[in-house]
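Hey everyone, long-time lurker, first post.

I ran two proteins through the pipeline my lab uses and got sequence/structure pairs for each. Pasting them in order. The first:
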Amino acid sequence: MEADMNRLLKQWEELTKRKEKVIRKREQLAREELEREDEGTPTRRRARRPTKRGGIRPRGQVPPKPRRRRCPTGRAPSWEYETQRQVLVRSWRVGVVCRIIQLGVLAYIIG
């Protein structure tokens, strides 16, 4: 029991030291970036993140919107619907409630 406590205390101390080192490094980088901004020179490197296709773009850069199909008349049809996300809920209770609501709306419209 005591050996486990000593091992955990050593791990805690190591993690604390690493955390302090990371904090100091972040502060140093922030100071350097502020100095570069004051000088008007571009920053040394930009944070990058992967795109959907596996490429990398700079942080903050917005991907281009997909082009919408247009009618031959040049106007967007009124029956178009766009959604950004889809969610699949695997709960039979939620599914039953959803279907009951759909049937209620359908019965109201028809009847």
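...and the second, right after it:
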Amino acid sequence: MATPAMEFKIDEALMLLTGRLRATSARELIVKAPLTPIDLRSAAVLTAETIPEGIPFIFARHPSREQRRKLLKQPETSASRQAVLKPVHVPYDTDVQPPTPLSAERRRILASKFKENMPEGFPGTVVLESPFCENNLPALKASISIQAIDGEDSDPTENLIAIPMLYDTGAQATVISEELLSPQFQEFLRTTNEVHEPYRTSRLVQVSAHICFTNTVITLYVIAVVRPKETMPNRFNGVILGQKGAIDSLVTEMVPRNFLPHLSGEFWGEIRITRAYDGILEEIKEYQ
């Protein structure tokens, strides 16, 4: 019986080969090329002869950008919404209240530090894609209070209790799905007031959060980007904890369920917090 085969355009095949080489030590090899002109086939053979034998490889066609977009636009169901995450095991009630919001002065300090650490042009367009087969992203529970960055202490806040928070997705900054915010609070943030300029231009808000780790609840203050659910992984309706000012300020121990046989399959595992850096007070807090 003939071996099944797929057809690839030559440039597509070369891109797959290049990607595989970059993932191995073979990327450091040197091709000794002649100084005189040669034909393209000879150049390809010369390059191929430099690659050592024994590196496993399979031709596999990845979904196109258009195919990924179609996946993201599939109708949302309870199953697809839950497929993107697994809860982190927490042995206590996670229905906690949000922390007391920062004062206007401390919010300005937080915003200043955020701007110092983010690259020019951020946030730009944020599109986060995750295949529907992904079912192993750890999710914490968090209760948060959302405010305008440059607002006053008397301005409205939006409180959300025990909402899902994806952890360690590689997101550069913390992201909140727009659909979590009430229409009234969204309208407040859009009002033509200089105070709300960070939201109207960059969709930035200030978040005060109580985050439920396996061993304890911590308080975290962070600047977040508000984005439509359509641009979240699998149209996830919740919060994604980002690197800047959040995960890069935490020391955690992540223990997958494979190392915790007493946990049921519904859980990702446990995430224990040991230390957290307070960027406003510039001090480190220890946790047991």
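Reply from user beta_strand_b:
Welcome! Quick read of the second one: The radius of gyration is 24 Å. Residues 190 and 200 are 6 Å apart (CA to CA).
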